[in-house]
């Protein structure tokens, strides 16, 4: 190869200089302008000395040349000799060339800067902010809940990093969430699995990090890789909350994230909610009310004055809060045995409107014995349950249901999913039958003889996208409700859906309960992001080994038709080994946002209950 010539080297140097961007171009224009001004001034001093003297010599000529270069229109006001006018004309023509290039350079540079800002690649300079990594439908729920939680705070920030266009993210959040009040949203485009992209979010000064399970074929692999990237980064490590779609990946995610990560098993929680809702209508609504920031919140409180008392006595300790359980050195216990003694280091788990409103009661009126209904234990009987549809969590739902029902119970699975009935070995109490059926076909549903079942579970078909799956579920619910009305049949209907916006449409079907799994998981992630210390409490609440939330018929606890104080309901539940935390009014079960659920009610306020209302308790199955 021949040796580079001097011209080639100069051109190569010039090309590299120009490639440095807008600043380099402006620098070259400044040099050209300076050269033009010097040349014009020198020519003026040489060819028009009289004019130069009239303009105060070199300083005046330099200034005059500068004005003609920057403002070519200034030549219109010039007067003098022909050489002077010709030189000034040249300066003006050169100025037109320079100014036009300068405008183009500035316009291009500004456009490039706006495009760079649009890409969302600048660093976030914040502290105490909440970071959300990834994108899914749960993000809207999390942002909405954190906005409510920070409604009274100034300067709260939520920073979002996802592999999406920044304006598209902002538009989507604005459309789904609306006004975020005092909470400011900062969106950045990047991959949460890349350390360089994570550095954009000032993670060391963040309050908490939420890792979302993306809507891809293998979402857990993405979450695990993100947890690894977070664990390997230098600096402070704030609490991390992550959602795992499949339970079999929990161990890998826990190992990747380390001890500072709180994992939410989406599959497991959704399955438990569906099973519990199928047996006690309204469980998912109560759980959503417990998890959101719109009403009461769960707090941990240490009161030395309660040390030495029993848990049963502590139920009357607070005037404006409801006791749920205890947090001892051995862990959290919700609804422990009534005779459990509170230790000096124990914390009380309470449900209250705000922590500033939690105060000890001066005294509590006794329960009204006239309204307490004696506890009865009906003999368990075999049940018949119909499951319409099949998806990836159906086998888990059936195993959990097997732990609740009595021996001899039957579950019929009806659907056209090729995997229906798979993975159901070693069931103890349930006999499972699989039938071919299109759940949206009225004649196919009627052929099943739905009236012989006590419970019907409608699952979302994971072979379809969430929107189409919800549409099919709505069709099935409408068919079932019309069959009930036409044939006079009585059975509970529990449905699984994806989109919270479809709940309003599903209310037309009058389904007993609708489990919006994505919404529940989003609410739980928001709670843990805001209060990581409650991870033990929620872990216990969604664990079948302990007490769970149950809405139960009010007539099993107190008399109906007359005013009854909630204190009387608390006492009635306590005699059954349960903790009453609220009630649900059946007449308001279709009214959002609480759907008739009242948690942490005024204990002294009398309420008249009717048949169909429910008492919400923490109890063993």
Automatic annotation (TrEMBL):
<keyword id="KW-0812">Transmembrane</keyword>
<dbReference type="InterPro" id="IPR044849">
    <property type="entry name" value="CASTOR/POLLUX/SYM8-like"/>
</dbReference>
<dbReference type="Pfam" id="PF06241">
    <property type="entry name" value="Castor_Poll_mid"/>
</dbReference>
<dbReference type="GO" id="GO:0012505">
    <property type="term" value="C:endomembrane system"/>
</dbReference>
<feature type="domain" description="CASTOR/POLLUX/SYM8 ion channel conserved">
    <location>
        <begin position="268"/>
        <end position="360"/>
    </location>
</feature>
<dbReference type="GO" id="GO:0034220">
    <property type="term" value="P:monoatomic ion transmembrane transport"/>
</dbReference>
<dbReference type="GO" id="GO:0006813">
    <property type="term" value="P:potassium ion transport"/>
</dbReference>
<keyword id="KW-0813">Transport</keyword>
<keyword id="KW-0407">Ion channel</keyword>
<keyword id="KW-0472">Membrane</keyword>
<protein>
    <submittedName>
        <fullName>Potassium transporter TrkA</fullName>
    </submittedName>
</protein>
<dbReference type="InterPro" id="IPR010420">
    <property type="entry name" value="CASTOR/POLLUX/SYM8_dom"/>
</dbReference>
<feature type="transmembrane region" description="Helical">
    <location>
        <begin position="84"/>
        <end position="110"/>
    </location>
</feature>
<feature type="transmembrane region" description="Helical">
    <location>
        <begin position="21"/>
        <end position="48"/>
    </location>
</feature>
<keyword id="KW-0406">Ion transport</keyword>
<dbReference type="InterPro" id="IPR036291">
    <property type="entry name" value="NAD(P)-bd_dom_sf"/>
</dbReference>
<dbReference type="InterPro" id="IPR036721">
    <property type="entry name" value="RCK_C_sf"/>
</dbReference>
<keyword id="KW-1133">Transmembrane helix</keyword>
């Amino acid at each position: 190869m021949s040796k580079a010539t001097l011209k080639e080297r100069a051109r190569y140097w010039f090309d590299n200089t120009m490639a440095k961007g807008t600043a380099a171009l402006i620098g070259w224009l400044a040099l050209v302008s300076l050269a033009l001004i010097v040349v014009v001034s020198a020519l003026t001093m040489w060819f028009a000395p009289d004019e130069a003297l009239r303009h105060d010599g070199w300083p005046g000529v330099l200034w005059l040349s500068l004005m003609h270069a920057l403002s070519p229109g200034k030549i219109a006001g010039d007067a003098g000799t022909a050489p002077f006018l010709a030189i000034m004309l040249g300066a003006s023509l050169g100025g037109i060339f320079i100014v036009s290039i300068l405008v183009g350079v500035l316009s291009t540079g500004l456009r490039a800067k706006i495009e760079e800002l649009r890409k969302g690649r600048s660093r976030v300079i914040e502290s105490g902010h909440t970071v959300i990594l990834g994108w899914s439908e749960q993000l809207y729920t999390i942002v909405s809940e954190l906005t409510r939680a920070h409604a009274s705070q100034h300067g709260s920030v939520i920073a979002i990093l996802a592999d999406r266009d920044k304006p598209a993210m902002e538009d989507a959040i604005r459309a789904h969430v609306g006004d975020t009040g005092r909470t400011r949203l900062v969106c950045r485009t990047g991959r949460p699995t890349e350390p360089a992209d994570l550095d954009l979010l000032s993670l060391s000064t963040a309050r908490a990090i939420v890792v979302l399970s993306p809507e891809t074929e293998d979402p857990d692999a993405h979450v695990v890789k993100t947890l690894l990237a977070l664990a390997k980064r230098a600096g402070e490590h704030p609490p991390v909350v992550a959602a795992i779609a499949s339970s079999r990946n929990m161990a890998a995610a826990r190992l990747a994230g380390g001890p500072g990560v709180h994992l939410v098993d989406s599959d497991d929680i959704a399955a438990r909610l569906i099973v519990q809702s199928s047996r006690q209508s309204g469980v998912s609504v109560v759980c959503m009310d417990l998890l959101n920031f719109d009403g009461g919140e769960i707090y941990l409180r240490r009161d030395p004055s309660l040390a030495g008392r029993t848990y049963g006595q502590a139920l009357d300790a607070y005037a404006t809060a409801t006791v749920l359980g205890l947090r001892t050195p051995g862990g959290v216990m919700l609804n422990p045995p009534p005779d459990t003694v509170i230790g000096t280091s124990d914390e009380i788990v309470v449900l209250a409107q705000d922590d500033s409103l939690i105060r000890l009661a001066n005294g509590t009126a006794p329960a009204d014995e006239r309204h307490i209904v004696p506890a009865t234990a009906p003999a368990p009987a075999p049940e018949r349950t119909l499951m319409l549809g099949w998806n990836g969590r159906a086998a888990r739902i059936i195993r959990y249901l097997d732990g609740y029902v009595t021996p001899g119970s039957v579950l019929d699975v009806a659907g056209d999913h090729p995997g229906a009935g798979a993975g159901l070995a070693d069931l103890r109490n349930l006999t499972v039958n699989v039938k071919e059926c299109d759940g949206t076909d009225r004649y196919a549903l009627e052929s099943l003889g739905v009236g012989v079942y006590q419970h019907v579970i409608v699952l979302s078909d994971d072979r379809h996208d969430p929107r189409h799956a919800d549409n099919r579920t709505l069709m099935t619910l409408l068919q079932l409700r019309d069959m009930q009305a036409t044939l006079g049949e009585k059975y509970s209907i529990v449905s699984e859906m994806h989109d919270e916006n479809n709940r309003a449409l599903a209310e037309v079907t009058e389904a007993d309960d609708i489990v919006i799994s994505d919404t529940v998981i989003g609410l739980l992630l928001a709670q843990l992001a805001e209060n990581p210390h409650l991870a033990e409490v929620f872990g216990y609440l969604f664990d079948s080994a302990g007490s769970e939330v149950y809405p139960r018929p009010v007539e099993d606890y107190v008399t109906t038709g007359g005013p009854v104080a909630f204190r009387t309901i608390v006492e009635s539940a306590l005699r059954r080994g349960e903790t009453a935390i609220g009630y649900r009014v059946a007449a308001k079960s279709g009214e959002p946002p609480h759907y008739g659920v009242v948690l942490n009610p005024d204990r002294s306020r009398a309420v008249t209950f009717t048949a169909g209302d429910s008492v919400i308790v923490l109890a063993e199955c």
